[in-house]
Amino acid sequence: MQINVGTKLWLAFVGTITLCVLALYLLLHNSLRQGFLDYTSQQSVQRLEILRGALANIYREDGSFQPLALAPERWLNLKDIVFSETDALFANTVQTTNDTTATPQAYYREFVSSISLHDTNKGLLLGVTKAKQSLIWIPVTTDQVVGYISFVKPTVVSRAQDRNFIQHQFKVFSLISLLVLIIATLVAALFARRISRPLKELAINTQALAAGNYSQKMPVAGHDEIGQLCNSFNLLAQALAANKESHAHWVADISHEMRTPLSVLKVQIEAMQDGIRPLNQESLAMLYDKTLGLSQLIDDLFELSLSDVGTLSYHKEKLNLCTLLKTCIAHYEVKVQSAGLTLEEGIDKTLNIQVLADANRLQQLLSNLLENSVRYTDAGGIIRVALSASETQANITIDDSAPCIPPGQEDKIFDRLYRIENSRSRDTGGAGLGLAICKNIVSAHQGTINAGPSSLGGVRILITLPINH
After folding, report:
1. 250 vs 243: CA distance, rounded Å
2. CA 180 to CA 226: how far, in whole Å?
3. Residue 9, pLDDT above cutoff 90
4. What's the mean pLDDT in 143-148?
5. Is residue 457 one of the residues assigned to a domain?
6. Does one domain contain both 364 and 412?
7. C-alpha to C-alpha distances, 334 to 343, 374, 387, 401, 437, nearest whole angstrom
């Protein structure tokens, strides 16, 4: 049989309270009984103060207890005198039970008979001691200890009124314990219901979430662990919903990106088949160009998917970042000049910045960024590449002139298929995957990449990479 969380909490709470009450009952039983016996022994010691004083006077008069030991009747008369008041007190007590040992008179008679007199070495002089019984010793003193009085320490509650008193206390405690258990059961039921209710609702909503319903939301009723769990569930539902929407947009954008060049190819090929467009080198070159663009898109998608799942290969080695940057800048000088732009570099040749990286991937990173600047920078503008370093990281900055990025969109440019202008021509703007690939390459090198406004009026891309000392 499956037990739900609420029932488990209730059983745990009630079970704990029950065990605590039982433990308290057992402790009280032993403590009350032992405490009562100790109290009885203390009373007995007080009663023996008279006998101890009388024995001290006898010792002073006789010089020892030997005359008393030779006259046992004096010892008996002495005990009778000491406890005569007790006998008189219970002389008129009515015996209501057949158990003669349970009457007060019998109790005190038994106590008197257990009293013995001993010498300084605790040797028996008068009285009777029983083996294996615990004795309480009371010293008899004059100017020094001259002997001891002993009596048997009580181990059971023998008087009926004492037993009745203890039983009454147990009954009262039993009623209190029963009341505590009832209250604890009710409180446990309330708390178990309060705790288990959001957990049950969370289980139902989690099943719905697993089935694809991301609109589920949990009310956050507090700041405890359950409240934090509900809040985390809401964040998870929002993240899954956003991921689902992003996935839908991703598929739609990919379909759109691939449909456009395929549509152009289809139209051009049909025009050639119908004789509307001549089949010559110019037409073939145009078809080839569209095919290259479609192939580049497919390659970017494949590379981006490999990077997302962590299977994009990296062969890292220790390399000089200054040399790598200068090589990439040299490769792009002709293309920058052809676009009517000026390429500046601010790289100190004396710097020896060593990084642990994949040279091909870093070249791909810098090429994508320079290509992006060439595409989006207005003619006559400037592209500037600079390198600096601290003790722990290298900083690569790529600045370009106008146009700039609208405020609030600096982080979005690294999203796949994102364009600042959706109407921009694919021939000019590309598919919007280059910066997404750049972000993954930088992350694979334990670095960061950010975009912001440039002092040249355009965009500044800042890349940080850890230095290999």
Report:
1. 10
2. 28
3. no
4. 88
5. yes
6. yes
7. 10, 11, 21, 18, 24
In terms of DSSP bridges, do strands 342-346 and 382-389 run parallel, antiparallel, or are they unpaired?
parallel
Q: What is the largest CA-CA distance in the chain?
A: 156
25-41 burial, b at 16+ Cβ within 10 Å, e below that, comes to eeeeeeebeeebbeebb
Question: Which amino acid makes up residue 360?
Answer: N
CA gyration radius, the chain: 51
Domain range enclosing 15: 5-162
What integer pLDDT is reported at residue 91 of this predicted model?
43
Confidence at 448, pLDDT banded by 50, 70, 90: very high
Separation between Cα atoms, residue 229 and residue 215, nearest integer Å: 17
Long-range contacts of 45-48 (CB under 8 A, 24+ apart): 45/136, 45/138, 47/82, 47/83, 47/86, 48/82, 48/115, 48/138, 48/149, 48/151
Domain limit, last residue, from 249, 274, 308:
308
Amino acid at the residue 174: S
The runs of H, that is alpha helices, within 339-433 are: 359-376, 426-429
Three-state secondary-structure class, residue 218? coil
Do 146 and 59 lie in one domain? The reply is yes
pLDDT for residue 107: 57
Structural domain total, the chain: 3
Q: Is residue 109 part of a domain?
A: yes
- Coil, helix or strand at residue 224: coil
pLDDT of residue 306: 67
Joined together, the tokens standing for residue 293 give 């663009």
Q: What's residue 352's pLDDT?
A: 83
Phi, psi of 382 (to 5 degrees): -130, 140
3-state secondary structure of 215: coil
CB 402 within 8 A of CB 395: no
Question: 369 lies in a domain?
Answer: yes
Say whether both 257 and 332 belong to one domain: no
Predicted pLDDT at 248: 73
User: Cα(390)–Cα(445) distance, rounded to whole angstroms?
Assistant: 17
* β-bridge mates for residue 118, sequence order: 124, 148
Q: Is the dihedral of CA 47, 52, 53, 58 positive or negative?
A: positive
Q: With contact defined as beta carbons under 8 Å apart, do 119 and 127 qualify?
A: no
CB 414 within 8 A of CB 374: no
Judged against a pLDDT cut of 50, whether residue 147 lies above it is answered with yes
Q: Which long-range contacts (CB under 8 A, 24 or more apart) does 183-190 make?
A: 184/13, 184/14, 184/17, 185/14, 187/13, 188/9, 188/10, 188/13, 188/14, 188/17, 189/10
